[in-house]
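ENTRY TYPE: paired fold submission
RECORD: A
CONTENT: sequence, then structure tokens
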Amino acid sequence: DLFNYYRKKLLFIIAGFLIGAIIAGVWTKVGITPKYTATAKVYMVSASKNSVVDLADLSIGTSLSEDYAELLHVRPIIEAINEENDLGYTYEQLNGMIDISTVEDTRILKISATSIKPEEAKTIANALAEKAVTEIPKLMGTSSPNIAERAITPKGKSSPSLKKNVMMGAFGGMVSSHSYLSLMIQLRQKKMLKSI
């Protein structure tokens, strides 16, 4: 019956699981170029007076962080960073390497850059942080933010994830072997029906 058939073919399913894991692991190690991510942090200053920051300032600061996140992606800023650091990318390429987000419920802006070169990732993230301080306030007519943390050269890769890819490969191998067995069962049943 079906249960006994699968029990006999258990080794086949296990082999599919292992082969999928091995292929994914080897491909991750050899076939995929590792990438590195560096992150700088900028703290938004929004007080309208030289006094204690009030609740209105906190709200304005949060809104400013979102505006900064968008404006740091504009073409003049990205192209200036590209030229000043002799990176050699197009606007689209460099913009695609950048991720800018706000830390929830704070006035902190996270500026991340991802590259196949660890040092380059750091350079891009810090250059963007500098632009956030020097250029964006000119566009918005606001106080300059402060760089809370400069990016450092990442020591470990941010992608690909060997563990994640191995798990996905193992799952894919198991599903493939299971699908193959199911197909074999269907063909066997059709053959049996024809012989009746």
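RECORD: B
CONTENT: sequence, then structure tokens
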Amino acid sequence: KMDDSNSRSGRLQFSFQPTENLDLWILAQHTKQTSLGNSANVRGYNVLPATTCNMVPAGAVPARTGPCQLVDHSAIPALGDPQVYTKYATSQLNLDDTVVKWNATLRTSFATITYLGGYDRLDWDSYNPGSTFPTPINVATPVANFATVFNQTEKPRTTNHELRFQSVDPDARFTWQFGAFYFKNDNDLDSFNQRP
């Protein structure tokens, strides 16, 4: 069954207070999704043989939407049943995501100190037929062009940290706050189109 998926996710979080002035919190979450990918009924098409009108000088590039580049509608297959059809290539999606977050708050006589952090590890792997047609086939006999398959693989790793100091009394005439934030994201990207 196309467009079907199997998703599972679990989360654990803990909040505790070791002392009266110290609060700690941590969260861990894992998500796993597998599916058959997106459904697409993609058909090929033909361009009519060259005529005097659509003959292009050497070195020139014909416009895809030019008035003389005609699509042979008689060679386009009927879509048939929009819900049941044979796909020319398999499709799939595999997603694996792990997230960890934490924070700590320490209250002192001179400042409230807060630290927040997090880490996200995502593995994304998809394989889906697309609707990209590399080039129209300019032939006298109907030979359908084939769509491509898009492979997308990404592995982003995200880390962030924040440290904040702020005044103790929020109702005081003068309040202050300062801190620092760090963010880093690394991603291994491997995506490409291929002919099935």
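NOTES ON RECORD B: Strands lie at 5-19, 22-35, 46-47, 92-107, 112-129, 137-138, 149-166, 177-194. Residues 49 and 152 are 36 Å apart (CA to CA).
STATUS: closed
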